[in-house]
Design a protein that fits this description.
This is Mitochodrial transcription termination factor. It comes from Trema orientale. One of its GO terms (molecular function) is nucleic acid binding. Belongs to the mTERF family. By secondary structure, this protein is mainly alpha-helical. It has 2 domains: 65 residues; 55 residues, no CATH class. The protein has 7 helices and no strands. Helix 1 runs parallel beside helix 3.
Length: 142
């Protein structure tokens, strides 16, 4: 059970990014663990989704499990791979942005890294987090 203090701290952190109660409660119902995230991580994740991924708060509420992933170890490297694929034309902008981060590591590597590593040598570096993720200039599909 979540303490009242932790719950209120989480609510306030999400509200600072413009989320309404009507948006938050269904998201928390889907993924209650997102209330146990530290305020620092909430701020970091929300800024990443809103600025680098160019998404809206409603998208984050639709996929609250993404808030539980590691930004540095999972989300940024996978977004770097997607950015590389889109920028080189190997993948179009119709990709569903939030599907690749939720794939298992094995499936992600097979479907996106190994598949293109012979054509795009930097894809392994991107997956290892050695290529900086610049962000997506357009809103990609959810």
């Amino acid at each position: 059970m979540i303490s009242k203090t932790v719950w209120e701290r989480g609510i306030e952190a999400y509200k600072n990014f413009g989320l309404s109660d009507d948006q938050m409660y269904p998201a928390f119902k889907k993924q209650p663990m997102c209330m146990l995230i530290s305020e620092k991580k909430i701020n970091k994740m929300m800024k990443f989704f809103l600025t680098k991924l160019n998404t809206e708060t409603s998208a984050i509420c639709k996929y609250p499990n993404l808030l539980l992933f590691s930004l540095e170890k999972r989300l940024i490297p996978r977004c770097s791979v997607l950015q590389l694929l889109v920028s080189t034309g190997l993948m179009n902008e119709d990709i569903k942005l939030f599907h690749p981060p939720t794939m298992t590591e094995k499936k992600f590597v097979e479907m996106l890294v190994r598949k293109y590593q012979h054509v795009l040598l930097d894809i392994v570096k991107a997956h290892e987090g050695k290529i900086e993720f610049q962000g997506f200039p357009v809103v990609l599909k959810l």
